[in-house]
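User: I'll paste a sequence; please echo it back and then give the predicted structure.

Assistant: Echoing your sequence first, then the prediction.
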Amino acid sequence: MNNHKSITPARRVMAAVLLTAAFTLPLSACSSSPDQQSSDTASSSEQTQQDAVTVENAWAKAATTADGMTAVFGTLRATDGDVQLVSAETEVAGMTQLHETVDGKMQEKEGGFAITSDGFELAPGGNHIMLMKLKQDLEPGQTVTVTLHFSDGREQQFDAEVRSYTGANEQYGDDSEHEGMSNNG
């Protein structure tokens, strides 16, 4: 006597569906569509491209090409551990340097600026980003885009509003280094 129950066509279909689902679901979980892959890549890229610093109250001193130079100020605050700012650049200047002021005289800061989560102040009469060989006049209300370069290879852009300012008339320590430029910092 045979104790096997006969398998109906409906049970066969159900078994096939369950077997297909059992093998397909784990495989589809491991793969993704091209759209999903680029979304995952973009999200991963955003995480690795996290800004090294926040830039607060950024502004640049108004100047003309006849002035030859100006400076950018604000507060830089590290977002995820201390970082070393090693250089900066902007399209409005032929040369950009990180400067410190020592005894009222501006000079390039060797090694750049150490930025911590406590903040690093860029201020008239103190540390600043110096824009030299201006390619255009900078008038109040305009915006200057500055790119920061860090020792770990990250780069970050920020915008600084151009403002009128008449203070902080520092002098250069070595005028020959900045030949042909005025001393408006």
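Residues 71 and 130 are 4 Å apart (CA to CA). The domain at 53-178 is CATH 2.60.40.1890 (Immunoglobulin-like).
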